[in-house]
Each structure stands twice: as structure tokens, then as C-alpha cells.
Specification:
The protein is an alpha/beta fold. The protein contains six helices and five strands. It is globular and about 45 Å long.
Amino acid sequence: MRIYLAHSGEEDIRKKAKEIQNILEKYTNIFCVNPFDSGATAKALTHLWDEHPEQRNKELAEEIVENDLDNVEHCDILVAYIEEPSLGTAMEIFFASRMFGMDVYIITEFESPWLISHGTIVKDINELLEVLKLK
């Protein structure tokens, strides 16, 4: 199963998302696509965006978005980790649910109607594992 792991780009959130990825990938046949470090393209685009703010423009932004959406579309489900609101994560949830018809699971404490209508909210990784019938 390919899981797109949506999350914001803040460093502490990236670390927590990586922990979730490591837990999920302990299970047989699970591969997580992390938008910030899965594949050479994602790593290069993330590096440009993070380390070279003078290069931030519409073209780079569109390349990042298209790469992310292509990765979302080629996954089986989307798992989002939301500790604080994130525009990119919200858009990935919307596209996965509405445009690609994917199952979406959201690890968060927020109870937004938008999140509830586009996915299944779980409180932590343990609940996610139970919902996915991995535990």
C-alpha cells in the first residue's frame, strides 16, 4: 500500500511526520510518500524552496504543487498529520478526497467541518493503526 503522508513544512512537524512514516513503514507492504523527501525531485524542490527564498516564484510553486499532486494521485490513501493549520496539507486532503476519490485519514485534534467531510479524523498514530487494521 502506498500512503501519501501530508504535513506542513515546519521543521518540528517534518520530524514528527517522519516518526509516523517510520512507524507505518514497519508494516509489510507499506511505503510512504513524504512530500518533502520522497525522491530526488521532491528533495530538490524542497531544497530550492527552503534554502533559496530569492528563487521562490510562480514557476517553482507550480512545479512543487504538480509534483505533490502527481504523488498523491499515485498513492492508495492519504494520511495527513495536522498539528496546526496548513494550506498545502488542506489542499492535498481536498484533492485526494474530491478529485481522486481516495480514503483520507487525518491525525489531528481539530474538528473542522472541512476535515470531517473530507476524511476520517483519528487522534494519534495508534488509532490510525487500528482504523487501518494494522494493530
